[in-house]
Amino acid sequence: MKLNGLRGARIAGTGRYLPERRLTNRDLEQIVDTNDEWIRQRTGIIERRIAAPDQATSDLAYEAAKLAIADAGLQPADIDQIIVATVSPDTVFPSTACRLQHKLGCREIPAFDLAAACSGFIYALAVARTGIASGSFDNVLIVGAECLSRFVDYEDRGTCILFGDGAGAAVLSVARDNGPGIIDTHFAADGSGADLMILPGGGSRIPATHEMVDRRLQYIRMEGRVVYKQAISKIVMLVNESLERCNLTRDDIDLIIPHQMNARIIQSAAKHLNLPMEKIFVNIDRYGNTSAATIPIAIDEAKSGGMLKQGDLVCLVTFGGGMTWASALLRW
Ligand code: COA
Q1: pTM, whole model, 2 decimals?
Q2: Which residues pair with 15 in a beta bridge?
Q3: Is 110 in the pocket of ligand 1 (CB under 6 A)?
Q4: Distance in Å, CA 25 to ligand 1 centroid
Q5: Is position 289 annotated as part of the catalytic site?
């Protein structure tokens, strides 16, 4: 999406929060029929973080958001809009964003959740960017936060090995004249794949009942192999199309920050793109797949690890439930 002639947006601050408790592959060996070697080889994951019993998604979001606002040199009162990307909200309603607005002590501003599964953060970035471009907002807080452990079936070895909890946040502000910022965003969906990754129970289709719980429909279900194949081709397509729209080439890319879904998917996409793994950010070994939170956590880690230098061309790219997909190209 090009926003010619309108105000540009830049990431002015970032933050992340990971709960303390670690769930290792060895721990999972005690719970389901799996083993450390299989998980490492097939996914690249070694451990994930699990929220404390008294923590919900808004608590994780709050910790990451505080850091992002401070990093941007702002106060909560400076924030004009809050978007929380999540598929594991504190409650169906009110939104996690409303809880976050209150916890942060922000003004009475628009605050809403955005449900686009693993694509949620880039969706939020794209939406926030248009709000800044239109002149409606100067500083938008976007957060990807998930407590997926509450929705994972620890009797299903095909899914429980993948997911973890965490939150990442960014403040999007008006880009300074010709300064670094977001060059391109793209987001789309295809609902024909809606059942490939789904939390079937607890909504209006299958409301919460004893029978629903007996059938374990309150947990995430996934067609892993189908998702795996689609993810690789979509990531390759998104990166190529994004570069094409901006008249740039793969050689121009300094860092790709992909959604952390499976290390093998990331490696395979990098191979198809003919890009060395040094240019791809990976931290799935430590956190697993935290859905909407992986990309903002990764941006903040890449930044604090010195991997993002001023002027770098960075590509964010994701694919997830919906099915949804999204990309963003930014000049750091
Ligand atoms: N431990 C040990 N064995 C396991 C296992 C586990 N945790 N999970 C599955 N297996 C077994 C299967 O039962 C199967 O055994 P079989 O051949 O005897 O039937 C075998 O391993 C292969 O299963 P398969 O499902 O084909 O494995 P895979 O290589 O596709 O890996 C995923 C499974 C889930 C890791 C992989 O499909 C994946 O990552 N998909 C994408 C999921 C994803 O990223 N979702 C989020 C998108 S945002």
Answers
A1: 0.96
A2: 169
A3: no
A4: 15
A5: yes
Q: Hey, which of 40, 41, 42 would you mutate to test ligand 1's pocket, going by the most ligand atoms within 8 Å of its Cβ?
A: 42
Query: Does ligand 1 lie within 6 Å of residue 289's CB atom?
Result: yes
Catalytic residue among 25, 139, 259, 262: 259
Question: Was domain 9-179 assigned CATH 3.40.47.10?
Answer: yes
331 forms bridges with which residues in the sheet? 181, 313
CB 170 less than 6 A from any atom of ligand 1: no
Tell me if 305 sits within 8 A of 311, measured CB to CB.
Answer: no
In the chain, ranges of CATH 3.40.47.10 domains: 9-179, 182-331
Q: What is the pLDDT of residues 261-317, one digit of tens each?
A: 999 999 999 999 999 999 999 999 999 999 999 999 999 999 999 999 999 999 999
Taking the C-alpha atoms of residue 149 and residue 296, their distance in angstroms, rounded to an integer, is 19
Query: Looking at domain 182-331, does it have CATH number 3.40.47.10?
Result: yes
Ligand 1 midpoint to CA 10 (Å)? 38
Taking residue 52's Cβ as centre, other Cβ atoms within 10 Å add up to 12
Q: Tokens at residue 27, please?
A: 């721990």
Tokens of 19: 């709960």
Of 123, 45, 41, 111, the closest CA to residue 83 belongs to: 111
Kindly tell me if the per-residue pLDDT of 2 is higher than 70: no
| 46-66 tens-digit pLDDT | 999 999 999 999 999 999 999
The minimum-distance atom of ligand 1 relative to the CA of 320 is 48
Check pocket membership of 228 for ligand 1, CB cut-off 6 A: yes
| DSSP-H helix ranges across the chain | 25-29, 36-43, 57-71, 96-104, 120-133, 210-214, 224-245, 263-272, 284-287, 294-304
C-alpha 139/C-alpha 292 separation (Å) is: 20
